[in-house]
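User: quick one
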Amino acid sequence: MIIKDRKELEVKCSPVSIKEGEEIGVRLLHELRESENGIGLAANQIGINKRVCVVNVKEPLVLINPKIVEKSKEKFVFAEGCLSFPDSKLKTMRHQDIVVEADNHKGRLSFSANSQDINDAFECVCVQHEIDHLDGITMFDREFKSEPIVKGVNAPKKIGRNEKVTITKGTESKVLKYKKAQPMLEDGWTLSI
Ligand SMILES: [Zn+2]
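Assistant: Done. Structure below.
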């Protein structure tokens, strides 16, 4: 059962031993496989307030007591969903590059959305999303709110010219400044938001 109550998810999780963390990781990966289109899950989403999360974009990855130890100043806008809020999808602002340390991984793990492969962006965003869960932070707290264009109530949200966005064409993807993406949108590329 995945917890869908926002208040319950706003509790900070506590550190865990590697042994217990591994057991929780197995349960999380199982739960994730049962889900529809899920790519990540944090322990508190299944009622265990311990610092364990899993990500499964390119390969299953269990993170025990994960910490983001480096993050790029550069951020980008991405469309996110969450298994706890299946009816919501929103634009968030995430770091383009992060480095993570976790007790069950010897080396540091690097994630970067600045790649040709859209899965790298998904993985990079997902790791940030799941570690946020462990701190009681949901995607709603990361929502990218841009200045609306002052043209009627239903006007689309405006993205800044220097804001980074993700664009895709077939299986190819790029992260770049919106002003550089604009001409490409007329050339078959789609804004991934
Ligand atoms: Zn989530």
